[in-house]
Amino acid sequence: MHTALLDRSLEALSAVRKHISFSANLRSQVAAPSFGCKAEGEKCFDISQILGEAADATSWRIIDHCAAITRTYALFESFVLQVLREYLAFLSGAYTLTALGDGFKAKYTRGLGQILVDHDKQRYQTLDVATVIIAASEAMANKVGYQLQPEALLRAEQNLRMAELQRLFSQCGLSGIDAWVTSHSAVAEFFAAQARLSETAASELKQIVDYRNEAAHGDVDDVLGAEVLIEFTHFFEALCRSIVDFIQYDTLRRAKELGRATIVGVITERFHDDIVVAKVKSATLSVGDEFYIFGKGLTMMASVNSIQLNDVNVETATVVDETEVGLRIGVRAKVGCELVRFG
């Protein structure tokens, strides 16, 4: 779930990091008193041809600062809206609108009404009003195959500071994103790695949004160095990972209730090297299989790297009666977590 989207976002953030480092390195080389070849026979070039009419060093740093901040934030905002679109597609494929509850239905209908009121505004120019009305009618009638209109719930009123992020997720029926992000391992590791300018995900996000707004709309008073700009990309990586796990957790919870997810087994022991013992019943496991680790406040993807059945290494284990199976799964899982297949 959402793996392709996460991979694309992480790749884009990595590209921002590479650009920041490259630009900073080039700027320092240009300022050096000499710029020559390393050894005879190696390809050389004329630095003056590369620079052309380059900006002065201060202006160059300001441009890099603004570009990195605005691009990094834009990637995060795009990721959030897209992952919520995917979640809403899951909801419409799994539930009728009525089954999603009165609160969700009320938010959705208000959002549809807002689209009709503002349909001539820029943000809704790509929407066909007639199609929106037909889709709304199908949703209200609990028609099989209906589709939720994402724009009805994904109207961001402000930049995505934590409070707005919580509001947006709540619109889609997801509560508790702040607490989840704060306790998520990727975010905790980010703040534990070294001293940060901010101490929490909420304050770090607010700081970046403030820098983004200044870069986009005003004079830049505080120009950040390459190290801090790169640090921001790592923060958004951690944030994106935590958000994917949050949505996957709710998706698996709902899928279990609907009978669309299969519990393969339950972890009863944990050892070093990501080895666990799981009680498995009525399932076939093979090396290379993927499944989700699901527990209280925890979800992650795991892959079977090795299997041990009755103290013997095997490539495939077919279990009929409940049996303890040793598995190396590549992630640190907790005792009590379930091994879940989705779909």
Percent of residues in helices comes to 40-55%
Q: How are the strands ordered across the major sheet? A: 5-4-10-1-2-9-6-7
Head-to-tail CA distance between termini:
10 Å
The chain-level structural class is alpha+beta
| DSSP summary, beta strand count | 10
In percent terms, what proportion of residues is strand? 15-25%
The dominant shape is: flat
Low-confidence stretches: none
Please give a handful of descriptors for the protein shown.
343 residues, 2 domains, 10 strands, alpha+beta, 8-stranded antiparallel β-sheet, Elongation Factor Tu (Ef-tu), domain 3
Structure description:
The mean pLDDT is 89. The protein contains 10 helices and 10 strands. The chain folds into 2 domains: 3-257, no CATH class; 260-342, Elongation Factor Tu (Ef-tu), domain 3 (Beta Barrel), CATH 2.40.30.10. 51% of the residues lie in helices and 16% in strands. The strands form 2 sheets. An 8-stranded antiparallel sheet has the order 5-4-10-1-2-9-6-7. The protein has a two-stranded antiparallel sheet with strand order 3-8. Helix 3 (57-94) packs across helix 9 (201-217). The chain has helices at 3-30, 47-51, 57-94, 102-117, 129-140, 162-171, 177-183, 185-193, 201-217, 226-258, and strands at residues 261-270, 275-280, 283-286, 290-295, 298-303, 306-309, 312-314, 316-319, 323-328, 338-342. The protein is an alpha+beta fold.
